């Protein structure tokens, strides 16, 4: 790019925000795109960009009228999930990244990345996306600007966040701080070079500079690696802001439940990726008289309200949900939202009617599909048609059960917190914590079998504190201290009650010990009744579990004995678990809060170990 065309970029910056104009200019000079384009966020613009993406082969327009105004994308088979080994927290001091994060010296990292980004956008358009996470009318709106060379990212960001002119005008009016989030697929085009449908680079870097509150992402176009408002900003960077400002940025769903008497409760739930947040957030209760409403399905920003209560806000505008396992029989609310259209599907299978399909969507399996790799597929193929981490990206306001309070700028009071993981054994269906500190202990020792949401082996048990292991933007010991400190900052009488849940425990025959999905409403009913002092429980060494007949089984083909089996605390399993927890805690060293050390001692004593 010549000097004069660089100059054109500078002159064209349609913003009065000096820092933003300067940053865009600096990045344009570094990455050397053919064009710089400021995203306005309008429907016309989106129609144009998606039409271009269809033209270039990145998107396929769905022609089945069940999926109006929707598109399918197919990624490079090597770019299908978050890449945790390639994710870095580059704090100035290595100690501030802690043992759960990859770290590199920020000056060294910047200089390496600057080399990678030099010319990285050649032959492409550089898009500038002003966005806000959470309500634009929040007391302190959380702004960001993503620069990307992927139009697929622009179209997806438009679903996941409020973007464009409206946000830019407010950033300018307030001369506000914004998180600079730089993204490139890392695939510059030489003059005349033919583009591919999913450009990316084998070399991937997802890098966060917490002190500067900035993000540099290189080489991937997929999900949390590329839609930088989500995991990179709303969790990793926001967790650092939250530590500094006394709030919490968490990987949680938020669900509002109203009992037959008309009393409402807001429940937040932290489960690791692909462990049931979106499904619970769109719960269809199977018990009479209970109503569920959605507030959020992946991220919860919690602040302490003026009466000392914890208040949660969902900072996202869309769902980026795991497709496989989301179906008409177990999650009709999600399916209804998806089939209203305006969605982008990635790595699902295509039907012969020009629609999409994935394992579990319908009970009847189509006779013929084109799988996510573009191959012919039949039920006899012996392989999955959709990638296990294939996703639907759908506007949240298409969810019929969306709560009006979703739009409330100061969120909702949180009455209960669930920590949950995917464990075949050991962890009961539900356990109530003995106290706030014990609840933090449960969260800090949360464990789950790994899933396809991140690259790497699937099914390995790993500790995942508060389901935030891949998302804590600072030292995990300091993170637990921060959680511990909430008790003294909040009104103790208004603190949420904490429960550990496990929808994935297996029975003696290897099947699920609990039907899950809509029937999870029965477990939530027990939890709410516990808050009200109405439900029976048994005290075990690990906390309070339901008695066999305290869970409402009306209409279910289950007996109280089945419930007892689903909540049993097995001595041998817990001996193994305790050893594993001790091993986990040892990794924190001095950084572990004293209250959690005391909780561990208490558990040991109660287990007679
Ligand atoms: N057995 C069982 N499976 C469930 C239940 N809830 C969800 N699942 C399955 O778990 C998988 C992932 O569920 P999601 O709700 O998409 O998980 P998530 O936590 O929102 O995932 P991320 O978007 O990656 O953070 C799907 O395949 C579901 O079918 C349940 O209650 N029981
Ligand atoms: O970030 C992503 O790619 C999807 C997601 O919600 C998760 O993995 O928790
Ligand atoms: Mn998630």
UniProtKB/TrEMBL annotation:
Transmembrane segments: none annotated. Its main location: cytoplasm. The keyword Thylakoid does not apply. The keyword Electron transport does not apply. It comes from the Bacteria. Its EC number is 4.1.1.32. Mn(2+) binds at residues 231, 251, 298. The active site is at 275. One of its GO terms (molecular function) is phosphoenolpyruvate carboxykinase (GTP) activity. InterPro entries: PEP_carboxykin_GTP_CS, PEP_carboxykinase_C, PEP_carboxykinase_GTP, PEP_carboxykinase_GTP_C, PEP_carboxykinase_GTP_N, PEP_carboxykinase_N. Its cofactor is Mn(2+). It is an enzyme of class 4 (lyase). HAMAP family: PEPCK_GTP. This is Phosphoenolpyruvate carboxykinase [GTP]. It comes from Paeniglutamicibacter psychrophenolicus. The gene is pckG.
């Amino acid at each position: 790019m010549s000097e004069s065309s660089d100059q054109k970029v500078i002159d064209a910056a349609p913003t009065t925000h000096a820092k933003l104009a300067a940053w865009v200019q600096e990045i344009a000079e570094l990455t050397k795109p053919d064009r710089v384009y400021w995203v306005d966020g309008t429907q016309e613009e989106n129609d144009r960009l998606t039409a271009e993406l269809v033209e270039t082969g990145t998107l396929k327009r769905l022609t089945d009228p069940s999926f109006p105004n929707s598109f399918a994308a197919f990624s490079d088979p090597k770019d299908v999930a978050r890449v945790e080994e390639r994710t870095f927290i580059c704090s100035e001091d290595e100690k501030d990244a802690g043992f759960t994060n990859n770290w590199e010296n920020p000056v060294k990292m910047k200089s390496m990345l600057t080399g990678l980004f030099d010319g990285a956008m050649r032959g492409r358009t550089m898009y500038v996306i002003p966005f806000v996470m959470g309500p634009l009318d929040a007391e302190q709106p959380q702004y960001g600007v993503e620069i990307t060379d992927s139009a697929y990212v622009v179209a997806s960001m438009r679903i996941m966040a409020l973007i464009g002119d409206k946000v830019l005008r407010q950033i300018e009016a307030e001369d506000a701080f914004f998180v600079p989030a730089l993204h490139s697929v890392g695939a510059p085009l030489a003059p005349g070079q033919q583009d591919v449908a999913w450009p990316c680079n084998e070399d991937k870097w997802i890098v966060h500079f917490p002190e500067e509150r900035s993000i540099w992402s290189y080489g991937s176009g997929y999900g949390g690696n590329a839609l930088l408002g989500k995991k990179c900003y709303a969790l990793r960077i926001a967790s650092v802001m939250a530590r500094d400002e006394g709030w919490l940025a968490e990987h949680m769903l938020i669900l509002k439940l109203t009992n037959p008497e008309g009393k409402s409760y807001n429940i937040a739930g932290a489960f690791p990726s692909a462990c049931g947040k979106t499904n619970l957030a769109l719960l269809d209760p199977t018990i009479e008289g209970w109503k569920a409403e959605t507030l959020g399905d992946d991220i919860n920003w919690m602040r302490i309200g003026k009466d000392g209560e914890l208040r949660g806000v969902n900072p996202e505008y869309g769902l980026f949900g795991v497709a496989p396992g989301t179906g008409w029989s177990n999650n009709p609310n999600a399916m209804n939202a998806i089939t209203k259209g305006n969605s982008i599907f990635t790595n699902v299978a295509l039907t012969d009617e020009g629609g999409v399909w994935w394992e579990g969507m319908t009970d009847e399996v189509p006779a013929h599909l084109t799988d996510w790799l573009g191959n012919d597929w039949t039920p006899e193929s012996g392989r999955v048609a959709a990638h296990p981490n294939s996703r639907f990206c759908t506007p949240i306001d298409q969810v019929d059960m969306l709560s009006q309070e979703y739009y409330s700028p100061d969120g909702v009071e949180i009455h209960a917190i669930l920590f949950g993981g995917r464990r075949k054994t050991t962890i009961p269906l539900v356990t109530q914590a003995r106290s706030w500190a014990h609840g933090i202990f449960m969260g800090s020792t949360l464990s789950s079998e790994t899933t396809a949401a991140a690259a790497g082996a699937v099914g390995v048990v790993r500790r995942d504190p508060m389901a935030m292991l891949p998302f804590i933007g600072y030292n995990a010991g300091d993170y637990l201290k921060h959680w511990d400190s909430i008790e003294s900052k909040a009104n103790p009488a208004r603190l949420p009650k904490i429960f550990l849940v496990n929808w994935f425990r297996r029975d003696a025959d290897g099947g699920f010990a609990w039907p899950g999905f809509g029937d999870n409403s029965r477990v939530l009913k027990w939890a709410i009744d516990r808050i009200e002092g109405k439900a029976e429980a048994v005290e075990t060494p690990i906390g309070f579990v339901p008695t066999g007949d305290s869970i409402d089984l009306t209409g279910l083909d289950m007996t109280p004995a089945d419930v007892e089996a689903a909540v049993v605390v097995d001595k041998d399993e817990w001996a193994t678990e305790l050893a594993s927890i001790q091993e986990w805690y040892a990794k924190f060293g001095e950084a572990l809060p004293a209250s959690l050390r005391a909780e561990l001692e208490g558990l040991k004593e109660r287990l007679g170990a």
